[in-house]
Amino acid sequence: MPNHSVDPTSFDSRLVVLAYDQLCTFEFGTAIEAFGRDDLLLGKPLYDLRIAAVEPGPLRAFGGFQINVEGGLELLEQAGTIVIPGWRDLAAEVDSDLLDALRAASRRGCRIVTICAGTFVLAATGLLAGKRATTHWFHHEELARAYPQVRVEASVLYVDEGDILTSAGCASGLDTCLHLIRRDFGPEAANRAARRMVTPPHRLGCQAQYIEQPVTVRPGSSLAPLLDRLRANPDSEIDIEYLARTAHMSRRTFLRRFHDATGTTPANWLLGVRLERAKDLLETSGLSIPLIAERCGFGTAATMRHHFRKYLESSPSCYRKQFGRVERMS
Questions:
Q1: 166 φ, ψ (degrees, to nearest 5)
Q2: 3-state SS assignment for residue 19
Q3: Which residues touch 237 (CB under 8 Å, ≥6 apart)?
């Protein structure tokens, strides 16, 4: 990812967070917490934070309460950064005054950051045309349909296009905020903010929106003992005939019962086991990547990298860098 660090002599610390009726409280609170709290070293906020109401208040917020905001869209005229924290409804039309204000801010060089469905607001301005962007994994297909000129990056945590940053759902907005602090004030400031918020200091934007796919066995399955053995030995080879005999079933019955129990095929199920085991070893051990690949049944590091890229949109080394808790053994 390119380095977009801001020259401190010309950095504009004025940051405006949008507030709107039916406010998404988590995304809004994330931005306020990240940018509005005192820095642990300086004893004051890093940014000059203001809140701008998109429409007259009081504004209803998700959860049943209301907020009153003193400033309006006029605050966007002087902002160095604007944060759009979600949006009330993907089908809700965005007011033309807001769209015009965002376009004007972009023309004068203001950065714009979106969290979750806030990407749809920015897409409506046309400012994302030809650019990469992301949103919550549940909405990326709808974003691509509604705005085909946007290069939708499915499943990543956030996308940094320099003057425009878009992020996925909920917690990935916090990753984006920390990334922006790192850009503006360096890693030490980002680490202090992460420590205050008790969150990992840095997850790369290219990392997938990790949605855990637990390796499940449906209740009542007679295959549970066999699956337990396979789980304990992820380097086992998939031999359908042998597994069927072990389960005292015909091949056809075994495959049907296996799908009933796990929802997938033996090969796909074992691949999930291997990926989970590899992730665990990358996080908790100092074993080399080739040795982890061997122990988890991938055979080679190249094969393991292939599956990490395909299913996790990451690499073993990137995953270890972000989640590993011990030094690698030489």
A1: -120, 145
A2: strand
A3: none
Going from the N-terminus, what domains does the chain have, and what CATH number goes with each? 14-197 (3.40.50.880), 224-323 (1.10.10.60)
- Confidence category of residue 325, pLDDT binned at 50, 70, 90: low
Check: CB of residue 213 under 8 Å from CB of residue 312. Answer: no
Location of structure tokens 């504004």: 59
E strand residue ranges, the chain: 14-19, 48-53, 59-61, 65-67, 81-85, 111-115, 132-133, 151-152, 158-160, 164-167
The span from the first CA to the last CA of the chain, in angstroms, equals 28
Contact 236, 230 (CB under 8 A): yes
Contact by Cβ (8 Å): 231, 194: no
Q: What is the C-alpha to C-alpha distance for residues 316 and 314, in angstroms, rounded to an integer?
A: 7
Considering the entire predicted model, what is its pTM? 0.63
